[in-house]
Task: structure prediction
Amino acid sequence: MSDEWYTPLHIFEALGLEFDLDPCCPITGSVVPAKQTYSLPFDGLTAPWFGLVWMNPPYSKPGPWVEKWLEHGNGVALVPMSKSRWFHKLWNAETAVINLEPNLKFMRPDGPDKQIFLGFILAAVGEIGYQALYRSNLGKVR
Result:
């Protein structure tokens, strides 16, 4: 399975935000409304993060990305639901969370939109992200 799954555009439209940084940008480009992006071979995990961050991490190993995102404390993240430690930490942190619709379709660089078998949440840390989730009408905010 590839980590190249692009966030559906309707999520960005609903959030109505411009991000300062996308540290997990796909090699093939981005649909994220971000002023700056990091993509391979540049390591966005070890590079400095700044401002309002959008994060849709590689689902093959999201834990370190979620840790850094929580430490940064300012942004919005799209992550799969999981029975892992990183998800437990995210769920119990000072985050606002929306459980997204189960039929969420991701854009693929090599073809049509596809569903992934996982459930997803949209999480926010920091006041700008919190407010965007509440305004988004993407689901109930916890």
Observations:
- The mean pLDDT is 91.
- The chain has one domain: 9-136.
- Strands lie at 19-22, 34-37, 53-55, 75-80, 96-99, 105-108, 111-115, 120-125.
